Every structure is written in C-alpha cells, then in structure tokens.
Amino acid sequence: MSAPLSDFPGGLKLPGHKKRSTQQPIRKTPLSKQLVLPLQQHIGAAAVPIVDVGDKVLKGQRIARAEGHVSVCLHAPSSGVISAIGEHAIPHPSGLSAPCITIETDGEDRWIERRQIADFRQHSAHELRQIIRDAGIVGLGGAGFPSFIKLNPGVHHTVETLLINGAECEPYITCDDMLMRERADGILDGVEIMLFALRASRCILAIEDNKPDSIAAIRYALTGRPHLSQTKIVIVPTRYPTGGEKQLIQVVTGKQVPTNKLPIDIGIVCHNPGTAYAVGRAILHGEPLISRVVTVTGTDVPHAGNFETLFGTPIKDLLDFCETKRQPDEPFIQGGPMMGYSLAGDDLPITKTANCILVGVEDVAPPAQPLPCIRCGDCADVCPASLLPQQLYWYSRAKDFEQTRNYNLFDCIECGCCDYVCPSKIPLVSYFRFSKTEIMNQQREQQKADLARERHESRLARLEREKQEKEERQRQRKAALAASKAAKAKEEGSTNNAESADSVTEEKA
Amino acid sequence: MPIFRLSPPFLAGANRVTIQMLQVLVALVPAVIAMTYYFGPGVLINVTLAVVVALITEAIMLKLRNRPLKPFLSDGSAAVTAVLLALAIPPLSPWWMTVIGVTFAIIFAKHLYGGLGYNPFNPAMVGYVLLLISFPLEMTTWLPVQSMAEQPIGWLSAVQLIFTGQFNGLGIDAYSGATPLDAMKTQIVLDRHPEFISSQELFGMAGGLGWEWINIWFALGGIWLIYRKVISWHVPVAMILALLIISSITTLIDPTVSGSPLFHLVSGGTMLGAFFIATDPVSGSTTLKGRIVFGAGVGILTYVIRIWGGYPDGVAFAVILMNMLVPLIDYYTQPRVYGGATR
Questions:
Q1: Phi and psi dihedrals of A443, rounded to 5?
Q2: What is the complex's ipTM, to 2 decimals?
C-alpha cells in the first residue's frame, strides 16, 4: 500500500522514558492568579501591546497586535485585569528579561465573543491565513515560527505534500502523542484547513512506531472524512532525530532539502500536530491560541503527565501541581533532554513554545572535564547531516572559523547525537554553537565595516566631485570673464580702428 | 538525576575512552595466551614489563606537562600502546629493548606531540620501528614454537634470558630462529620455490606453525571489537582484502616471488596489524571512505615491503607511512552532507 520508507544516516536509539507521562489523560492546569505573557513568543518581531494597565480583559481578547509581516498577535488566556506592562524574566537560556503583559486573573474565565466558521471552504485561503495570524498561532513543535506564513504557498511554489510531524522523537516528551490519542478529530479538522490554505491534496501524518495508540486514534478519525481521502499515516521507525524536519522528509519521501533551501522548494510543508489542532480551534471555534499541552515529566516528577496549560502560567505553579521534588535552585529543562535548554528560576511563564518541562533525567551527561578527542569517528557515524563533527570540533577549538564553514558547520542541526556518543565526553554542540555565533557576529561586523567603508568612499567621491564641479565652475567663470574681457578689448580695438579710419578719411577729406 | 550541564544535550551515552581501551586489552587476551603457549612465558614477561614502564613514563610525562594524572593514567591508552609493542617484539628480547621501545613510544611518539589524541603516528609502531632499525638482528630473530624447540623455554630460562641475556651459559641466539616470513624471504633469495618452502615443518598448515593460530586469535579478538563497536569493520576488511588481492595478483603473475596469499594473511603481524594497529583511531583516518583507503594502503604497503623491502614484515612501516597520508585522505574523502552542500 505505501511506498517503502527511506532512511537518514546516523541517528541514535535512545531510551524513550515516555510511559512516565502517558499514564493519565491530558489534565487542565488550575488557573493561576497571575499570568505573564511575553510579547515575543515566536520567531520574528515582538507583538505590540494594545491594552493599558488597569484595562479589564476577557478570555481570548487580543492584547497585542502583530508588528510587521513575521509576527503574530497575543491574547489574554483568561479574564482579568492588566496589572503590568514591562520587563519580566522569560524562559530563555540567557536568563534575560523581556517586555511582558501581566494579567491578574479574576477567576471567572469569561470568554470574549467567538466568531465560529462552520464551513471554511466559503472563505478564501487568504482570509483563513489572516484569521490564523490574528489567532496568534505559531509552530508548537518548539521553534515558534508564525504558522500563517507556512500556510502560504505563494505564487512561485506548488505544495504537493503537507507533512504532519508526529514523530516526537526526543525522549520524555509526549504532548503530541497525547494530543493525537485524545484529539485526533481536532487535529484532522486543522489538517483539512491547512490543505485548503496550501492548495495541497496530499497529507502524510508521520508517527513513530512507539505510539500505537496515536496511530490507532488517527486512523479511526480518518475514516469517514471524504476531504482527507489523500491523507495517509506513515509509521516511521523510532530513532532520534527522526522528528527533525529534514530527517523526517528524507525518511518519508526519500528526498533531501537542498542546502540553503526550504522544504517548500521541494513541494513539502511541515507542521506539528499541535499546530494543526490550534488551526482547527481558531477557524471552527473562533478560539485564539491561549493554551497548549505541556508535558511535565522527569525523574523528580512523581505525578508526571500532560497538562493543558494557559500561556503565562508560572512554571512554578505547574511544577507544584505535579508535586515535583526539586531543590530551590536546581536547574530544569524546557524542551527535550537532547535539544532543550536549561532554566534556573521557576518564576517563568509557560509560553507558546514550551512543549515539555523536564525535571531530572536518567543517563545525565557528566560535568567532568572532557578528555581529548581521539578521532574515533563515532560522532561522524551518528551525525544525521553526514558532517564530520571531530573536524568541526578541531577547527572550532582553534577558532579557525573559515575552516568550520568549509566543513559545512551551518548544516549542523544541533541534535546532540555527537555529544551523546563521544567517548571523551566533549561538549561538541556547545563548540558548534559558539562557532556559529562567532561567524554570525563576524558577518555582522563585516557588514557594518562594509557599510562604513562604502559611506566613507562615497563621501570622498562626493568631495572630489564637488571639488571638480567647483573647479569647473571657476574655470567657466574665468573663461567667461576672459571671453568678456576679450570681447571688450576687441570692441575697444575696433572703435580705435574706426577712429583711425575716421581720421584717415578726415585726412583724405 | 538533576542535570549538570547548562547546555544541551543533557544526556550522555555510556561510551568512554577508558572502556574502549579496556575492551581492546580484553580482545588481545586470547592471542596473548596463544603466543605464550607457542613461544613461552617470555611473552607475558615482555607484556608486564612494557605496561609497567609505559605507566611510569606516562605519569612522568603528565607531571612534566602539568597535566592531571588520574584521568589520563586511567584512560588505558598507555597500556594499550605497551601491550601492542610488547606483542610485536621477539618473546625473549632483552629487557632494555622493551624499555627503550616503550619509553620512546610514550615520550616521543605520544607526549611530545601533545599526548592522547594528538599523535600523528601510531606510538606502538614508532617504538617498534625504532627498535627494528636500531637492533635489526635482535628484532628479527624470533623463537621457534615450543614444540619444535630443542630446549623449550620455561619461566626460569625466560626471566634469565630477558634480564641477563644468558641461561646455563647460552645466549639468546642459541634459542632463537627465523620467523616463517623471514625464512620464506631468505629461501626465495636462494631460488627455492615457495611451494617447496611452505612444505617445511616451520610453515605449518598455511602461515607458519603457531603463527597461523596466533593470527586467527588476533582476528577473533578483532571481530569481537567490531561486534562491540569499539572499531569499525572498514580498516581491517580493507587491509585484508587489499593484501589478499595484491598477493593473489603477484602469485598469478609469478608464483616464485612470494608465499601464497593465504600465507600472507595468517603470518607475521597481519591480523595484529589489521585489527589492533591500523584501527588506532588517533593516527588513522576518520571518514568511512578514508578508513577504507587507509586500510587498503596499509595492506598493499605491507605486502610490498614484505616482498621487495629489506625487512621480513612490513606492517609497522606500512602503518606509519599511511599515518603520514591521513590528513590528505581525510580531506579528500569527506562525506556528502545532507542537502548536497559540497566544499
């Protein structure tokens, strides 16, 4: 029935630890007293507040508008009063603060009026994208790229396949799994809208073979949906990082996304099941994106599970709700154990990209000093991008950034497989990130320097031009002067001649 | 467990340098037992002496270079170098030869280049080659297998011969003889036909009495290492195939220039080289294609040196010569990255 699956090089079989958080259905996190909403929870420009401190807001009311093209709106996750607009700590590895809107909830959780669309096919794709944008929907897989942009094929591209990435290959995380098990219909609603917006016919739902319940739920939901006759489930082998967009495309279609190109360039658009679900809610139910399913798990979480959590909910409340045993300063992970980042404080809000809060892991990487690289090549064997991490490490260490680029540093997806297998326990990904940052800084500096040089050169050119023009004018003036002098002299000369001629005639007379 | 690192990934696999090195040592055990069986306890004495000297030298060098002792002494790399070198030199070599070879390997081939991970040449082979070109006579006279020896070597005689050079008034030369590889080479010079030469008792079934079994045990140990993913199959397979192909071609063209292809496979240091020497990650190629090129190069050079060179065996020279080419091989054998970016 289905074409044989392709494969990507490298990768790892990691212990999944997923059962821990799939024993109970998705539960709702209790409403917190205070919700803190960073204005930037997506890639692109931060949203701009359209409310003032003291304003009363309803659940689902827009509180910040999108700014520029790559941006989305932000909504109040619950009813209450705006208590502050200003800097607040955000869940970012740097530990920095950023502008946030704070809402004191009133406990009523009263919705704003919702505009529901029963038959979205009566609307244009453009209208639907606008609604999706206004609903604040971003990629819920972790990157947070505004979804409406990825639902616009544009005039130059034809989208053949919508790929729903339900691989969820990172250990511990189960939010997509649970969503697919419990809300398969909602996801497929979103898929129909996405296909319509993309003018695509074919959809592939790729799910790793360690999620039989999800596969069964989606399969059941697919029956009796005439618009999804071209939609099929592809069961992919459980292997990290199958859920990487590029890797999944290779597994499912056998094609590779060319370097410096996007999946849409080969006719594929990839979305997360959570995003599809959010699109369905936004169009069919008029609900903007104000909550998401968050996996809370880890060896220190006794009541691990998946929680539908309003954005802005303090991570502390969520962890307390799960009775997490965590030392006050103990860092925890947002995201997965391979590609997530560590956070130190828990007075941080849940945001649109928070798929998992992980407190305590097994097989934890040691803090020990690494041994030198012995060039064993294990890292190259597991690299899904077929890079040579040991060479990249060598040149990163030497700060020979030119060479790191020659060895295709920017094709590294930072999956961490090389780190995981390194017998010397070298933090390779950290080195690669360092090099990437340095190169980008250098490029920025170079651009600035180029700009300054151009400006200086054009100034010199302008001065030179002005000088020449001035000289030219002077020359012209001089020439004009000389000409007029000459003309005068000639005139005088001719009168003299005339006079003499007169005298001659007089003499003659 | 709470996390320690502050940047991802937060997980780590069980793979460790020390574990890899220990597995290499374990994989050598069957061959060491076989060698002791065929050549007497001198093998064990050499191995022990070499390991002790290597660890002491390693410690002194780490101290001089202001490096922490514990992580580097316990990584096992010095012990592996020592054991490989000890297995490559004759079983009754005088103690000072072992000491010179091992200290040279550790000091010059390893630490002066920066220690673990930085040596461009295989330290054990550098030590071996130093001994080979400095003491060619001692290094090329081996022992006959115990069953063929007029006086089998016991513990007492082995200790005395190694540390004093004499036992019952007789020197080492009274006990030693040529290896099958050496004998083949010298007899071919005398215009004897290889088939006739191999029919002598010294040559056993295929690769020399004792030697063939020692090689098989090395190979089995190596296959276990491949199974344990400590080494990859590329280098050994490439080296063995290259050796097989070039010796087959030569034999087809002129059967009088060398022993049979099988003889070359299970004689001398072929299997030790294929599975334990050429697979040294530090001094070898790191790309998959590169490993094949590297292994094939070692196989071809080994054969060329054995047949047309001045020494009976060529594994050590072949490995060192190919070590020199590693940067070049790595450069030209980079894999095609995802998405097709090329350099």
A1: -65, -40
A2: 0.88
Give every CB contact of residue A467 below 8 A, 6+ residues apart in sequence. none
Q: Which H helix or E strand runs over A85?
A: strand A80-89
Q: Which residue, among B32, B16, B13, has the nearest Cα to B276 in the 3D structure?
A: B32
CB atoms within 10 A of CB A87: 11
pLDDT, tens digit, 9 for 90 and up, residues B192-204: 888 888 888 778 7
Alpha helices, H only, chain B: 17-39, 42-64, 69-73, 77-88, 95-104, 123-134, 136-140, 155-164, 180-189, 194-198, 211-227, 234-253, 261-265, 270-272, 288-308, 315-332
Residue A88 in tokens? 């607040």
How many residues does this entry show for chain A?
509
B288 contacts chain A (CB < 8 A): yes
Cβ atoms of A403 and A28 closer than 8 Å: no
Q: Chain B within 8 Å of A258 (Cβ-Cβ)?
A: yes
Nearest chain B residue to A258, by CA? B339
Distances (CA, A) of A33 to A58, A103, A104, A346, A439: 15, 8, 6, 16, 44
Tell whether B287 lies on the interface with A, counting CB pairs under 8 A. Answer: yes
Q: What confidence tens digit (pLDDT) does each residue in A64-92 have?
A: 999 888 999 999 999 999 999 999 999 98
Q: Which ranges of B117-193 would DSSP assign to H, the alpha helix?
A: 123-134, 136-140, 155-164, 180-189
For tokens 């502008």, the residue is: A99
Torsion of CA A403, A407, A410, A415, to 10 degrees: -120
SS3 state at A83: strand
What are B273's two structure tokens? 């080289």
Checking if the pLDDT of A4 tops 90, the result is no
Residues of chain B with C-beta less than 8 angstroms from the C-beta of A430: 7
> Of A199, A191, A248, nearest to A221 (Cα)?
A191
Locate tokens 């934890």: which residue? Answer: A364
Amino acid type, B30: P
Chain B residue numbers touching A339 (CB-CB < 8 A): 8-9
Angle in degrees, 0-180, between the axes of helices B17-39 and B42-64, rounded to the nearest 10 = 150
Residue B267 CA, chain-centre distance (Å), reads 13
From residue B256, give the alpha-carbon distance in Å to each of A175, A482, B187, B212, B251. Answer: 72, 107, 11, 22, 7
Burial A262-277 (b: 16+ CB within 10 A, else e): ebbebbbbbbbbbbbb
| Angle, CA of B272, A379 and B281, to the nearest 5° | 25
Amino acid at B149: A
The SS3 assignment for B34 reads helix
Residue A271, token pair as written in the block: 């979305």
Q: What are phi and psi of A402, to 5 degrees?
A: -55, -45
Q: Which residues contact B336 (CB under 8 A, 6 or more apart)?
A: A386, B342
> What is the enclosing helix (H) or strand (E) of A87?
strand A80-89
Q: A215 to each of A182, A208, A379, A385, how far by Cα in Å?
A: 11, 9, 33, 28
Cα separation values, B23 from B281, B291, B336, Å: 14, 21, 32
Taking the Cβ of residue A382 and every Cβ of chain B, the question of whether any pair is shorter than 8 Å is answered with: no
Per-residue pLDDT tens over the stretch B234-285: 999 999 999 999 999 999 998 888 888 999 999 889 999 999 999 999 999 9
Cα dihedral A56, A58, A62, A64 in deg (nearest 10): 40
The verdict on a CB contact (< 8 Å) between A375 and B286 is yes
pLDDT band at A508 (very low <50, low <70, confident <90, very high): very low
Of B68, B286, B336, the CB nearest to A390: B286
Whole-prediction pTM value?
0.86
pLDDT in tens, A347-380: 899 999 999 999 999 888 887 678 999 999 999 9
Question: Within 13 Å of residue B185, how many CA atoms lie on the same side as its CB?
Answer: 21
How far, CA to CA in Å, does B307 sit from each of A38, B141, B201, B255, B302? 75, 18, 22, 12, 9
